[in-house]
Every structure is written in C-alpha cells, then in structure tokens.
Amino acid sequence: MKTKARLLAGRIAVVTIIVVVALFVIVKFMPQAKPQAPSQAGLQTEPQAEFQAEPQKKSLVLYFSRAENIADASEYLNTLGGDVDAITSASVLMTDSGKITGNVGLLARWIAEEAGADIHSIHVKDLYPQPKKETQNIVLQEQLDGVWPEIVPSTEEFDQYDVIYIGFPNWYAEPPRALYTFLEENDLDGKIIIPFTSDDTNGFSDSVDILKSKLPNAAVLSVEDGLLVNRKELFDAKERTQKWVKTVALKAESAKNDPLSTSEGQKAAAQALIGQTVTHEEIKEKVGEDISFSKGTNGCAREITSGRFYYPGFVIYCQSDDHGKTYTVLSID
C-alpha cells in the first residue's frame, strides 16, 4: 500500500510540475495585447486645438516735417546757415546718416529709438517753397480755402500697430493740412494716438482737439500727456524725450480700457445724459473735460437760461432753470 501511495504522489508531483512549466511558457511567449488608446476604449478625448499666438502689436512714429517737404532742401540747408523757420517750428537739419529733416523729425527719431518703434514720414506731392514767407502764404490759403494737399500714398500696414505717435509743427494753431489728408486716407480706428510737437510760441494750440475730432474712434492722449519741446531747447531735450516715452507708455496702456478716451466714447456718455438734470461738474465727471462752455441769458435780467458744452466733434445743448446751477441735457449735436 505504501508503495502505491508513493507512486501516486510521485505522479501528482510530476503532473504539477508539467502544468506549472506549461503555464510559464504560455505567459512568457504568448503575444501581449496592446493597450487601447482612450478613444478606442470608449473614452472620448477632446481634439487638441492648434495654438496660435496673437501677433504682438508694434508702435509707429508718424510725423510731418516741413524740412522734408521743401524743394531743394540740401541747397536750403547750405544757404540757411543755421537760421530757423519760426512759423513752421522746423529748423532744417541733417541727421548723422545724412538725411535732411527738421525739429519734429529729430524728435521722431529719438522717440522711435527709445520706443523700439517703426517710423514713417508724411510727404506732400507738391513741395513747399524754400522762403518762409511763401510757405506762410500757402499755409494760410490752405486754411482759408479748406484745401488738403495731396500726399505720397503710404505703403504701411497700420493693422500691425496699436500705438501711434503723431508729430507735427503747429501751423497757425493747427497741424499741417497734409496730416488731415493722411488721416482721411488711412484708417486709425482703435489706435492709441500720442501727440508731440516742437514749438516755442503756441504750444499745441487747438491741434490735439482737432486730432480728436478727426479720429473719433481712436484714443488721442491729452495735451498734458503729449510732448512739447521748445525749439530753442531741442538739442538738450533727448534725455527728456526718452523719459517721456517711458512715462507716456503707461498712460497709453490705461487709455485702452477707458471708454472716455475716444471722442465717440465721450459722445455716447453724453447721449446717456439726455433728459437728466446735472451740474457742470457732473457733466465733466461723466463725459470728460470740455473744450469750452458758453452760457445763454434772457436779455436784460442776464439770467442764465441755457448752456453749451463743446467737445471734440460734438456739442451738448442744455437748458437751465436755476441760473446755471444745474442743466437739463436736451440734445447732442
């Protein structure tokens, strides 16, 4: 019996070993099934959107200089002997690269260098004459006749810029009319406009308000934010200009989010006041600072009965029943 038992145990052991070896071989050499991708296993995966970085916007320095718009500028520079054309605020200068420019052109180069901006000069098709008096006569006639001179078409793609510095001499309290032509032919909606000039008598005068009225959908920074350099101090103004570029960049950034930074934004705010009775200070708070204000009176009594608030591109018409303490907004024109 013991012998049979030993034989049976031995057979069982052999069978067990054979089974274990067989399982090992199967596991070791059997092809493994590849794991399914999440979508193959019934799990939905969102398609990966291709990332496209928005192109970074750049700055542009746009300017008009009489020195770059007169006939035979090089000859004029030689005969000028350093004299300055006071009416145009533009000395005829030569840059280090040998280019003829003026005071505004020199400022433009400093600004572009500091801001890392592109630069573009406006040129008229019919050049102005060299003599100052003849230029004065033409400028006055342009203003009297409402003439905008033809300019050389621009090849710039302005969509690539979000900030544009605009420089010009101050001609009889306004920018050169060649700039009006440029603004008419090119779309600057949505841009931040930063003005600069070189003048020693009138400053910006009405120029910035004119820019605001001609660019109702652009944010034109104020006279206080612009750069005004006295032409007599020009050659000592490079460091000041560089500091200004750094400072005004912050103001340009905040203007992007200010609904009152554009003339159209101010007009919309004024229209929201129609029918309301407000004080002059409240109008300033809700619409922004006005250019000027005029009062209407009722004759002999000299009591204030109406008011007009002037803004770039529109006027707020009001009625007053309490001697000008408050105003009921009637219409916007």
Structure description:
By secondary structure, the chain is α/β, with parallel strands linked by helices. It folds into 2 domains: 200 residues, Rossmann fold; 70 residues, no CATH class. 35% of the residues lie in helices and 20% in strands. The protein is built from 9 helices and 15 strands. The strands form 4 sheets. Strands 1, 6, 7, 8, 9 and 10 form a 6-stranded parallel β-sheet that branches. Strands 11-15-14-13-12 form a 5-stranded antiparallel β-sheet. The longest helix is centred in the N-terminal third of the chain and has 28 residues. The chain starts with a helix and ends with a strand. 31% of the residues are buried.
Strands, helices and their partners?
Elements: H1 2-29, E1 58-63, H2 73-80, E2 84-85, E3 90-91, E4 93-94, E5 100-101, H3 103-115, E6 118-121, H4 132-145, E7 161-167, H5 177-185, E8 192-198, H6 207-214, E9 219-220, E10 227-229, H7 238-255, H8 263-271, E11 277-278, H9 280-287, E12 292-297, E13 304-311, E14 314-319, E15 327-332
Parallel strand pairs: 1-6, 1-7, 7-8, 8-9, 8-10
Antiparallel strand pairs: 2-3, 4-5, 11-15, 12-13, 13-14, 14-15
Helix pairs in contact: 3-7
